[in-house]
Amino acid sequence: KISVNANSYPEYAYGDKLRLSCILEIPQNFQNFNYQMYLAKDGIFYDCQKAKISLLENGQGNKFYFALLGIKNQFNGSLNRLLPFPEAGLMSGLILGGSAGLPKELQNNFSRTGLTHIVAVSGYNVTIVAEYLMMTGIFLGLWRPRAFWFALFGILFFVLATGMTASAVRAGVMGALLLWAMKNGRLANAQNAIVFAAAAMLFFNPLLLRWDVGFQLSFLATLGIVYLYPLFESRMDRNGKFFWLWEILFLSLSAQIFVLPVILYNFQILSLVSLLANVLILPIIPLTMLLGFLTAAVNFIFPPLAIVLAWLAFMPLKYEVEVINFLGNLKFSALAISNFSWAWVAGWYIILLLFMSFKKIKLPLKKIKTKND
């Protein structure tokens, strides 16, 4: 494979047959960034410089996939027409993934507040999509087991619509496994499945382990939710008035404890407002995604109603943008961390592994003692 840099216009679509001429060069590494290995993990070994592209034929690809991408583009176009900027870019990122539609300042504030994951194609977003699909299936009269399979097929179509990128496939696998775990009633049931899924991905592409930060973050965040969150959950009152708040807080904390060393090593930034930002934003993300999906979907059927839904969707989007910009612009919102070496990363995970092993041994002993007493 080769990496091609070209102008934004003219535009080309999936299935177009192109003539390409360029100068092939071996990718050059940047300072403190191994660009060659970053591309190699995707099978890319050359940069295509000074590309000249001409169109030979239109639409020669798979007709089903061509139609699916067409629906996705119309869906995204509806959001851009019905919602203002930058709220439209945020909605597109929430539903379809990606932050390209956001202004640079807002992208930076997402990073400073630790909320980049909500505009990436992550297992979190896919799980929300799957839960809505399950509710839709049940509403349509399907039994819960059938609704589960309906949701899984929905995840497959979602991954296809996002372009089958590595991050989308990974999110689809992780989201499907988390959905399966919730279907069985316990996140702990997904432990072996998550590890197996990661091992299968690494079997086909071992370079992901070292050179794909997205793989590292999504896998570790999922492990944090599966392994660490049940320890917090066992001490929470499920009937308490603020259980939902503690659930969001400890889900975020569980994921962040597992991903923090990788973030510090690769991005050299520590968000001090991440937990607060997640608590303020995450509760309304599912509602925001639902309103955005309904807005774009209804626009295909009855545009006047879509305008009303767009106003409803705009309100939570505006709130999210304002909160992220406010927290991200605070002077103390993030700290620059330099010289966070591999030794610190290894030490963090060794301590975490020892802690988890200790809790796994100790918890049953406490139960036995209580029973004997």
| Backbone CA Rg | 22 Å
Main structural class: mainly alpha
* Spatial strand arrangement across the major sheet: 1-3-2
Number of alpha- plus pi-helical segments: 15
Mean pLDDT: 82
Overall 3D shape: globular
Q: Count the beta strands.
A: 5
Order of helices and strands: EEHEHHHHHHHHHHEHHHEH
Approximate strand percentage? 5-15%
Helix content class: 55-70%
Our measurement of the CA-to-CA distance between the termini, rounded to an integer number of angstroms, reads 66 Å
For the biggest sheet, the summary is: 3 strands, mixed
Unreliable sequence segments: 363-373
Note down, in words, how this protein is organized.
By secondary structure, the chain is mostly helical. The protein contains 15 helices and five strands. The chain has helices at 35-40, 63-82, 87-96, 104-112, 123-139, 144-161, 166-183, 191-204, 208-211, 213-233, 243-267, 274-281, 285-301, 303-328, 342-372; strands spanning 2-4, 17-25, 46-57, 269-271, 334-336. The chain has a three-stranded mixed β-sheet, with no helix packed on it. Helix 13 runs antiparallel to helix 14 (303-328). Mean pLDDT is 82; it is low at 363-373.
Q: What's the helix and strand layout?
A:
Layout lengths: L1 E3 L12 E9 L9 H6 L5 E12 L5 H20 L4 H10 L7 H9 L10 H17 L4 H18 L4 H18 L7 H14 L3 H4 L1 H21 L9 H25 L1 E3 L2 H8 L3 H17 L1 H26 L5 E3 L5 H31 L1
Parallel strand pairs: 1-3
Antiparallel strand pairs: 2-3, 4-5
Helix pairs in contact: 2-3, 2-13, 3-13, 4-14, 5-6, 5-7, 6-7, 7-8, 7-10, 8-10, 10-11, 11-12, 11-15, 13-14
